[in-house]
Every structure is written in C-alpha cells, then in structure tokens.
Amino acid sequence: METVKNVKKAATSPAGQFQAGHSPLIQHQPLPGVESKMKPRPRAIATLYAMEGADVAIAYPPAEESDAQYGRECHIFPCDVSVPENCRRLVEERVRAMGGLDVAECKGTMGQNLQNKYIPSLFYLSKYARPHMRPGSCIINNASVNHCVGEGNLLDYSTTKGAIVAFARSLAMQLLLKGVRVNCVAPGPIWTPLVVSSMTDEELDSFGGTTPLSRAGQPSEVATCFVSLASADSSFIAGQTLHPNGGVIVNG
C-alpha cells in the first residue's frame, strides 16, 4: 500500500509528468553535450518491441555499428537503405533469418540530398516488405512535427517529413483491403543525436521550451507510439499520424 501511495504522490507532485521542467524517469539522460552520449530513437523503439516479446531486426549505416551492437540480441544489417537493391536484400535477409515479417518500421536515412534518400528508401522498403506481410501486419513510418510547423533552416528535412506523412496516408488506402495497416508517428521536439549535432549551445539551452510541457521529450516517450501502432490494440487505426510532441496542437 505504501508503494501505491508513493506512486500517486510522485504523479501529483510538482515533479509529475505534466509539470513544466519534468524529466521522465523512464529514460532519464543528462543534458546532451556530445553526440556520442545520446541514445538514438530507433534503439528505444527496438528495445520496447523486444520487451513485448518481438524478434527484432534493424538496418543501420555502417558508421553506426557501435549503436547497433547494444543490449539484447537482435538481427542487425549494416547497409545504406537509400539504395533500392539494399532494401530488397535487407527484407530478404530479414525474412530468411527470422522466418517472416509482421511489422516494418521505416525511418529513412540521413545525409546529403535528403529528398533523394528519405522517400526512395521508404518506397522500396515498403515495396519489398509487402509480399511477406500477412493480414494483421503493419507498416509504421517515422515523420516529424516539422512537417506541420515548418523550419526555415531545415527546409529539406521538413519537406521530406511532409512527404512521408502523405506517403503513409496514400499507402494505407492501397493496403487496407489486404489487411495491412499503414500509419505514421510525427515526434518532436525530442532529444536525439541530430539535435545535438545541428544546434548551437544557445539553441540547446532552450530546446523544447516552447512546448506546452516546457521541455523536449525522450526517445522512450516516442517509442511507445510505435509499439502501440504495431499491436492489435490499434487494429482500427490506419492512415493516421500520432503526435508525441509535448502538447503542440497540429492539424496534419
């Protein structure tokens, strides 16, 4: 009983999750200073999938080997998914290694010429994954709040994220009658390596401060959206976008 009281007290105290300045206990991190100390969002997603009992496979750029080789055993595939042949090989090796494919979580790839990398990788991953997906399977795309609010200094990034949302909605209409759901998650602002590597110290000090919750989110607070969309609990959700963004109201 005392434990229950303590949980209730923590949830209703000034340090509760709905209070300004709250730091979530589920994956607390110090304020980022160097990019290598950040825990990437894909790792958080893969971890929660594994906690639900799923067999996990991830594709990653070879330069991120140290991040991929972390924690629980999973199948890892170093490759550049902006290359169509790599997408085909990735799906085939995944199916051969794990016996099937039920959930495809497509993030895209970073680097120069984002429009030429993000969208083709989502298209080809979905194309090659679809024949292996049974009714009840799902595809989940990773977008960003920037497709709604816009960022003048992230024109290419924001543009591609908007395209990802449109892709998910249209693909959902194609695959609904085949029993495959397609949805999207549009996070932000979230502490990620991209944030640390692309912002000044002054910008980092105020990062996330304009959200109604007055803080940026943690990767683990986004990962739960992916797990929820992948589960049977979301069987009536298709062509939609979830917005873990600290309370920012968007219409898209």
Task: Give an overview of the whole structure.
The chain has 252 residues and is of the alpha/beta class. It has a single domain (40-242), classed as 3-Layer(aba) Sandwich (Rossmann fold). 42% of the residues lie in helices and 10% in strands. It contains ten helices and six strands. It has a four-stranded parallel β-sheet, with helices on both faces. A two-stranded parallel ribbon has the order 1-2. Strand 1 (57-60), helix 3 and strand 2 (75-78) form a beta-alpha-beta unit. Helix 4 packs parallel to helix 5 (114-129) and helix 5 (114-129) packs parallel to helix 7. It is globular. InterPro entries: NAD(P)-bd_dom_sf, Sc_DH/Rdtase_CS, SDR_fam. It comes from Choiromyces venosus 120613-1. This is NAD(P)-binding protein. Keywords: NADP, Oxidoreductase. Residues 1-37 are annotated as: Disordered.
Write down the CATH class: Alpha Beta
Low-confidence stretches: 1-18, 24-40
For the record, the CATH architecture stands as 3-Layer(aba) Sandwich
The overall number of domains is 1
Write down the CATH topology: Rossmann fold
Distance between the termini: 44 Å
CATH superfamily (homologous) name:
NAD(P)-binding Rossmann-like Domain
What is the residue-averaged pLDDT? 79
Main sheet, how many strands, which sense, barrel? Answer: 4 strands, parallel
Could you tell me the radius of gyration in angstroms?
18 Å
* Number of E-state strands: 6
